């Protein structure tokens, strides 16, 4: 279900972000405005514009989402390249296509690994500090 939702959401965001979709929304507003005299600028006609502007606002959200999707994809491509050419693990490349629960699982593993690493570093620092206290200091004469 989660993967299906992710695919549908990506498809809708893509379609909503097309210039043709935006042009279609503009055409709807123009048709409404031109039809005003035919309907005597009635309350029903005004209700249509209220509904229409709500729809346009709703669609604008998808246009903004499309922009964010593109920006996010560009950032992901850059991060993937940095991972690929560094000492990072290549298995992280492309994880933005996973479901939220799959990404959360990977994030949890990374956090556990970071804690283990921090504990290892702290233990090594503690051993070093103890060893330095045991070693007699040489005094310069």
Provide keyphrases for this structure.
single chain; 141 residues; mainly alpha; 78% helix; 0% strand; rod-shaped
Task: Characterise this structure.
- With 141 residues, the protein is an all-alpha fold.
- It has four helices and no strands.
- The chain has helices at residues 2-16, 19-35, 43-85, 100-134.
- 1% of the residues are buried.
- The mean pLDDT is 81.
Break the fold down into its secondary structure elements and pairings:
Elements: H1 2-16, H2 19-35, H3 43-85, H4 100-134
The percent range for helix content is over 70%
Question: What can be said about the biggest beta sheet?
Answer: none
Question: Which regions have little confidence, pLDDT < 50, spanning 5+ residues?
Answer: none
- How big is the Rg? 29 Å
Shape: rod-shaped
Strand content: under 5%
Number of helices: 4
| DSSP summary, beta strand count | 0
Mean pLDDT: 81
| Class by alpha and beta content | mainly alpha
Order of helices and strands: HHHH
What distance separates the N and C termini?
Answer: 77 Å
Summarize the structure.
The chain is mostly helical. The chain is built from 4 helices and no strands. Helix 1 (2-16) packs across helix 3 and helix 2 runs antiparallel to helix 3 (43-85).
């Amino acid at each position: 279900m989660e993967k299906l939702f992710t695919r549908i959401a990506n498809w809708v965001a893509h379609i909503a972000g097309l210039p043709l979709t935006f042009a279609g929304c503009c055409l709807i507003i123009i048709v409404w405005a031109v039809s005003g005299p035919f309907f005597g600028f009635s309350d029903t006609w005004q209700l249509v514009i209220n509904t229409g502007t709500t729809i346009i606002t709703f669609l604008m959200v998808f246009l903004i989402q499309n922009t964010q999707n593109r920006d996010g994809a560009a950032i992901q491509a850059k991060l993937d390249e940095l991972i690929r050419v560094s000492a990072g693990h290549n298995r992280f490349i492309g994880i933005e296509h996973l479901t939220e629960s799959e990404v959360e699982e990977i994030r949890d593993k990374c956090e556990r690994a970071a804690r283990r690493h921090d504990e290892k570093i702290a233990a090594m620092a503690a051993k070093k500090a103890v060893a330095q206290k045991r070693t007699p200091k040489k005094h310069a004469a």
